[in-house]
Design brief:
Number of strands: 8
Radius of gyration: 26 Å
Structural class: alpha+beta
Number of domains: 2
Shape: elongated
CATH topology of the largest domain: Rossmann fold
Distance between the termini: 82 Å
């Protein structure tokens, strides 16, 4: 007689545990969501163009933004492994750190003698060196653009962000946001 009571008690406990999980725990812990990567750059042109996320992953399934367009990496086609590496990854890391106010003015990036170089739509070149302190380097460049005494220039060197160097008068500054 005690065996059926034990089985009934276990069954009741099991039903209670499943009910608690189903109605209390599961409802609050299982939340569907899609993480959409922020695209920092593009590879290719036209309908063949693909985006590149801040971590270097090539994102083929997400449509590219049209306004403002993403700056282009100097690659003919996406890498076979699905991730950019080396100098292209350095460029992506710099592009991922750009302040929102300057994003519409990015045209392209390259890797030259001074490391990562970003060209603005106005023709001004910003020289970064490597991607370390990218946000700080962008802020140094933005401070130069905001200086009312600077009206035009050719390049800004922010390799040492605490001591930026700029020169020239051939290109207009980006418009104030």
């Amino acid at each position: 007689m005690t065996r059926p009571r034990v089985l009934i008690g276990l069954a009741a406990a099991l039903v209670a545990a499943v009910g608690i999980y189903w109605f209390a725990i599961r409802a609050g812990s299982a939340e569907p969501r899609v993480l959409v990567p922020n695209l920092s750059a593009s590879i290719g042109e036209g309908s063949d163009a693909v985006g590149v996320a801040a971590n270097g992953a090539v994102v083929r399934w997400l449509p590219l933004p049209e306004d403002p367009p993403l700056p282009q990496l100097p690659l003919e086609e996406p890498p076979k492994g699905g991730r950019v590496k080396g100098t292209a990854l350095e460029q992506v890391r710099v592009l991922a750190a750009v302040p929102d106010a300057l994003r519409p003015y990015l045209a392209r990036s390259s890797f030259g003698e001074s490391g990562v170089e970003v060209e603005l739509t106005t023709g001004i070149e910003i020289r970064f060196g490597d991607a370390s302190q990218a946000r700080r380097k962008w802020n140094a460049a933005a401070a130069i653009f905001a200086d009312p005494e600077v009206t035009a220039l050719d390049y800004v060197n922010v390799i040492a962000p605490s001591r930026p160097v700029f020169e020239g008068s051939g290109h207009e500054l980006p418009a104030a946001p």
